[in-house]
Amino acid sequence: xxxxxxxxxxxxxDVAEAWGEGILPEGISTSxxxxxxxxxxxxxxxxxxxxxxxxxxxxxxxxxxxxxLYAPQLIGEDPLQSELLWHKLRRLNRHxxxxxxxxxxxxxxAIWDIRGKVANLPIATMLGLARTKVGAYATARTIEPSPxxxxxxxxxxxxxxxxGFKVQFWDGLDRDIPRFRAAREAVGDDFPLMQDAAGMxxxxxxxxxxxxxxxxxxxxxxxxxxxxxxxxxQRLTExxxxxxxAGETSRVHELAEGxxxxxxxxxxGDVHMKEGITGLRKAVGMADLLGFELxxxxxxxxxxxxxxxHVSLSMTNGRWAETxxxxxxxxxxxxxxxxxxxxxKHLPAGAGLGVDLDWDWIDDNTQSxxxxxxx
Length: 375
Prior knowledge:
The protein is α/β, with parallel strands linked by helices.
């Protein structure tokens, strides 16, 4: 089997409702969400699907990167040799100084989709199935809410059956701490809560916030400062009672150093930033052997989060699946990322990624397209 072509579409649509009544963070546009939806074609007629993360409306730019830089490395290669391809792209990325590992990660997802279809098995089964369902937590839909807004949303997510609720604040401690307290008051003492600062706190802010989160019994404090500040992360991990979760933006090989140093209590990873299903599964195994939990991070591109779900179902050292507003699952039929009445996500039944694409919706929201080689 050989890869014969790569085809990409820019998918764009309005997701403003996902942010509720909050104010959009500076530099982020959600009024017109754009990402790259990619298809890898083979000479046997089996195709693999994937997407690229595009929080900054950069779908068209990432298509050019995929086709100009990566496509020449893929055309003519055997997608069943996924490990060999993963290392080939990793070596390429050594010199791709302007890029992260995200594009290579998205390619790897499509390669695994092809492998699963050829084997007629779900990806999670090929990885080694550990469970058929995983509990989900909900991530807050607003960025700058009042404490009253936080209280309301926390109660709403708890009532919907989610196993936990994650807030995301970095607006200054005078504004954030009342929100931490409001979430805890809303859900009671035993319901899991998490805070994600997206690396936006200073060390001293993180130290002060972490002490409050520990007092409130939060399950973790996510990316309190930038992931690559390993020395300061290590200090926070030693000084705070609340567990530190970090490593979301670290490359898969950088994550190993963070674990070696004990720079955090819980590792983080997803199929995008950890260079695909292959890379994330390596990170999961590495964490397992070193005695770390690894929580799989959501990406908000539906095919990537389906890939994340497959990895989650092949591991035992992670508790949850992250869940966003349902508007980020459009393009898939049957709501395969939705939770059941008890707050669980389930193994997709089909081969490969195991989902049905809504081609009518995809066609209606395609802004542009490109194919290599051109037909």
